[in-house]
Structure of GTP cyclohydrolase-2:
Amino acid sequence: MLATEAVSTDLLVLFAAQGVSTPRLVMTGTRANVLGIDKSDRSTCVVSAPDSLDAATIEYLANPLAAKAPQPKLSALIVNQATPLEMSCVKLAKLSRLLPAAVLVDCPETSEAFAVEASAIESYMKTAAHSLRIVSRARVPLEDAEHAQVVAFRPRDGGIEHLAIVVGELKTDAPVLIRMHSECFTGDLMGSLRCDCGNQLRGAISEIAKAGSGILLYLAQEGRGIGLVNKLRAYQLQDAGFDTVDANLQLGFDSDERDYLPAAQMLSLLGVSQVKLLTNNPLKVAALAKQGIDVVERVAHIFPSNEHNDGYLRTKAAKSGHMFNFEPKK
Ligand SMILES: Nc1nc2c(ncn2[C@@H]2O[C@H](COP(=O)(O)OP(=O)(O)OP(=O)(O)O)[C@@H](O)[C@H]2O)c(=O)[nH]1
Ligand SMILES: [Zn+2]
């Protein structure tokens, strides 16, 4: 059993009910790889020190943007495979949109911390997606699609909500034109030029309206699933020279942390089983098909680049397999 308390440094401190003699840091294998303290391909590592891990070392290990301090002696660290309980610590940190690492300490006798079973953390994502329900819907005429409705989905536990923009009258006995759009506060709302999200959002609504009907799933998966705060950290790393994929890895995340089970569940609740999918991302096609939705066609969804998002789009083509013609810069 674990008890949780988020600390101001954005690192999760977890009290383990089992004895933990000295504090240890649970982190992703990805972060351990980029630090060079583990060369294996394990998903989660647990790091300890012969004496005790000090705060500066923990900060250095968990946060690539930590204030520059003398590098701690990494060769003295002990790196081991994480136990299932330790793995669930990183899952909890990710679910909380914190840095994907956690400090594990012994539970003080008097602690009033909130307790949660590790197995509940494991099953949370699946349970939440399966329990999604339509909780409200309303007509919202849009500039590019006057006949539109916003439909809100919420899991039973009141957790993360997702939205569907349903345009026109759906004909669910034929493939429905859809877009799975991951939330992007900076691009969708602020018109950021760092990505292509704003254009893709409005472009998809307009494309669907022109087709007569369809759905835009507006998924609460900011920053390819790492959350807005971590996306801003990734931007800071990109300004220091990392590309959009490597910045995620530096933070300890996978390059793409999204899960499309909620999207498939939303489509099922709307009575849709066959789709034409507006995307350039082959992973989205495969992920939706894996969840039992028949993707009969991929429809390209490409917009002109600008000087700020050119590198981002090139990286997507070169590293994430996005289907548009961008040669990597020599
Ligand atoms: N982590 C991270 N997320 C980013 C970055 N730039 C944009 N995003 C996020 O990426 C998501 C955009 O993904 P999508 O529009 O679904 O794009 P995609 O995966 O390229 O797929 P398609 O657009 O369908 O081809 C949004 O959640 C953005 O917030 C970045 O540099 N780092
Ligand atoms: Zn964006």
Observations:
- The longest strand covers residues 133-139.
- Confidence is low (pLDDT under 50) at residues 1-8.
